[in-house]
Amino acid sequence: MTTGPLPTIVTTEMNLKLVLTAERSVTVLALFDYAAHEPFSVRATFRTSEGDVNWVFARDLLAEGLRKPVGDGDIAVWPSKNASGDIFCLSLSSPSGQALMEAPREQIEEFLMRTYTVVPAGSESGMIDIDGLIDRLLSDGGPATL
Hints:
There is one protein chain. This protein is of the alpha+beta class. It has a single domain, classed as Sporulation-specific cell division protein SsgB (Transcriptional Co-activator pc4, Chain A). 21% of the residues lie in helices and 44% in strands. A hairpin with a 2-residue loop joins β5 and β6 (85-94).
């Protein structure tokens, strides 16, 4: 939690390609959000015909994935190329299924650069009010949130 003014939010909307087979894909609208009061994470909402699908990623994971393959378990990201140029690949896995999506690399880079203007890399922990969090955990005020 931050003290002072309301948190700054960075949002972007982009069309991703959901890869169904090597020859077939569909376009999925994705909304990426970053909030200064949750400085380590990026929220992604994928708009599908069956409803919105929400995921939370580490901002560092997205940044590293622009340079090299990273991720374990449910989320993996890596840079690649296709006929259109440089892309960013995002693999998601859950009990409900798996998805491989391709995003324009420059849109992911632009979004991340905008997040770094709000909270520079390496300064994320300074955005969290640790003392306030501990006070709420030790009080009878109920559950604590960041």
